[in-house]
Specification:
The protein is mainly alpha-helical. Helix 5 runs parallel beside helix 13, helix 6 packs across helix 13 and helix 13 runs antiparallel to helix 14. The two termini are 16 Å apart. The model has no long low-confidence stretch (mean pLDDT 96). The site of (2R)-2-(alpha-D-glucopyranosyloxy)-3-hydroxypropanoic acid has 9 residues, from helix 2.
């Protein structure tokens, strides 16, 4: 076995909690939605049954409404936004026997389920998909029913945590003036230190590599407002100004919708026609988020329809959706390869280096992450850019091979950043290695 495989397998083993895997034992001691999906995609190469369990375990947290929460919580973990913070029981739709968060995360799950099934013996794959399909369907139904109030096909997010790229510039721009009284009082009373003590991440990782206290408190405020609405998405969307039609989320959803259609076909089920119509709407609606002037896709404020013109890697994810034209794809690939934008020595930066928001070592504001690289690689393959895809695949593997399974890396010099032994880095490195 080569060294990288050994290292990655060891990380996944150490972070395994039986039926699910924690992203990082110290920093993230619960089960996260898109993390478990990426983890299952890698685990399928080692133990496809365990990978299937990783997906199945996510659904312990599914709400009666169909919502899949971004965190399914364990007790007494010390994570600052735990069960007492979310109080999921305020919603009658929340599961009774397990505490969860009240928001979702990028819908990678149907993609992961399809990929895991490909590695199971056919009879087992059939049983797995049969059993998981109604739950996946309920989740996609919830996204369209509760998060697409205008029936346009673009999913509305109520918190930056939902997009997965937490402190990404367009979201931080959206909440720049959000200043509830409790946060200003908090600042006036110089309580910063109190919150810093509650945070585990800045104890293990230098603070300048993480989301700032103020940004995190603002996201906590958005979560609190949503909780006050008993996590009723329609209420929150109609009352909150901080709602975003997120380009990354909808791009991933398109890819996931396609997986769901193939899963349905595999087990001879029919997706309800009104839902499959909504799928096609999302594909068409991506075009609304294209900006001719800068030749890029952006997220948009749901209420004002103002485009959030802070370029990020999410604007490249329409490649992953496979739903844009070849002409648009060509333009994105040009931007991806441009040395002044995304074409760094250790690609792909989450924010282009030319942007005034680029920060080399700060979380989702510049560093290269293996999950976004994985989506870019598949996006390039969708459009036949084989060499470019192979190049990013190779560079991602080198990053992990040389530096370890860190959470993220400097896009300028490859320096490992964030948590070490991070599960999805290990899992997706395995997948990148095994699927060449
Ligand atoms: C909040 C677990 C998660 C990832 C997210 C990443 C980070 C949490 C946090 O960690 O978010 O959900 O505490 O910062 O931004 O993408 O799923 O790895």
């Amino acid at each position: 076995m080569d060294k990288l495989t050994q290292k990655a397998e060891a990380v996944l083993k150490a972070n395994d909690r039986g039926s699910y895997t924690v992203p990082s034992p110290k920093l993230y001691p619960h089960q996260w939605l898109w993390d478990s999906c990426f983890i299952a995609i890698g685990l399928r190469h080692i133990d496809p049954r365990r990978a299937a369990t990783e997906i199945e375990s996510l659904f312990r947290g599914q709400w009666q409404s169909g919502m899949l929460p971004h965190i399914t919580l364990r007790e007494d973990s010390g994570y600052w936004a735990g069960a007492g913070f979310w109080q999921s029981s305020v919603s009658p739709a929340a599961p009774k026997d397990v505490a969860t968060s009240g928001i979702t995360q990028p819908p990678v799950v149907a993609i992961a389920a399809e990929k895991v099934a490909q590695k199971l013996p056919e009879a087992e794959a059939h049983v797995f998909l049969k059993q998981i399909y109604p739950k996946l369907l309920a989740y996609h139904n919830w996204l369209y029913r509760d998060r697409d109030p205008d029936n346009r096909g673009l999913i509305v997010l109520v918190n930056a945590w939902e997009c997965g790229f937490d402190n990404t510039p367009p979201w931080m721009h959206t909440i720049r003036f959000l200043s509830p009284l409790w946060i200003s009082t908090f600042i006036k009373m110089r309580l910063n230190g109190v919150f810093t003590k509650r945070r585990r991440d800045t104890k293990t990782v230098p603070a300048e590599q993480r989301i700032s206290n103020i940004e995190a408190l603002k996201l906590a405020h958005l979560a609190y407002m949503h909780r006050k609405n008993d996590y009723d998405s329609r209420k929150t969307i109609s009352t909150s100004r901080y709602c975003v039609e997120d380009i990354g989320f909808s791009s991933i959803l398109i890819a996931a919708n396609k997986s769901l259609l193939r899963i349905a076909n595999h087990i001879s089920e029919d997706i309800p026609s009104d839902l499959s119509y909504r799928f096609t709407q999302t594909e068409k609606a991506l075009e609304e988020l294209w900006d001719e002037e800068t030749q890029m896709y952006y997220s948009r404020n749901f209420h004002t329809k103002r485009v959030l013109k802070q370029p990020t890697i999410s604007g490249l994810l329409p490649l992953f959706s496979g739903a844009i034209s070849k002409e648009r794809a060509d333009k994105l690939v040009r931007t991806l390869s441009d040395a002044r934008q995304f074409g760094t020595d250790f690609p792909v930066p989450t924010v282009p280096t030319s942007s005034r928001y680029f920060k080399e070592i700060c979380y989702w504001q510049g560093p290269s992450w293996i999950n976004s690289n994985w989506m870019v690689v598949h996006g390039l393959e969708n459009y036949g850019y084989k060499e470019k895809a192979a190049d990013i695949r190779q560079k991602s593997l080198e990053l992990v091979g040389k530096n370890g399974c860190n959470e993220y890396f400097s896009a300028l010099n490859g320096k490992p950043l964030g948590a070490s032994n991070f599960s999805w880095t290990a899992a997706l490195a395995l997948d990148l290695l095994k699927t060449t």
